[in-house]
């Protein structure tokens, strides 16, 4: 018997499709239950939406999480990524995570809908809105796909806006190191447990679009996101300017999370005048060697699909898309 609580869960639905020779014919459909009315149910399947009259439903059953290896892999990586980018404020809505970091970055200030919110989907979405409203922030939900496809459909219906699609890409750490030969002609990359003022200035320039040599006045939540990880390193690559003062030309951040399995690469940046010289590869290699020494076996990163240059670089390094996500933002409240 289907119940409202089944909405938002993965289901196997056996439906009656006809009668032949006096025998009832059945067909099974697997997908996320996104709608249940008095007359119909709607599944999101691999082939798209499927609307089935309840009169044709012979049996319906939830798919236990243990029978969903792909979903488990996506959920595990999303949780490892959350460890690598830890919001200082985190609450739970059932299994979902609610995160706030003084408004700095979408990932640090959005709900992560992995697992069961312990209430119907509509009520969970309302609870997310209320939680962020209490903090004076717009409600955002990071929607991993295809894991949270029903949530994405529900947010479409509620007119939540969507940010550009983000690719979560992975590769084995050994394969990444094989793709990154050593460069003896480049300066040694310095790895530090905290970022320098110059490092922070480059990130500020990247996010604001305006170059500056001054360290930004980051909110406390930003500093927590960057540094509150047990295993984290900030890569600094300096160019020799011929004077006593060196110029920082390349940076990146690396973390090891997920019970020591995952190297997470974030904030890879090279100043415009130093690009196309292999500097991004050089700083990535330094972080990969560091992570390998800690016993990490795999690498992940997140890159916007529309960032064609970065996507092409990571493809050449052997990265493939593990899954994707959208950051959805609630429409402004009326009045």
From TrEMBL:
Superkingdom of origin: Bacteria
SUPFAM superfamilies named among the record's database cross-references: Acyl-CoA N-acyltransferases (Nat)
InterPro entries in the cross-refs: Acyl_CoA_acyltransferase, GNAT_dom, Rv0428c-like_C
Enzyme Commission number(s) from the entry: 2.3.1.-
Pfam families with a match to the protein in the record: Rv0428c_C
Top enzyme class: transferase
Name listed for the protein in its UniProt record: GNAT family N-acetyltransferase
Organism whose genome encodes this protein: Micromonospora sonneratiae
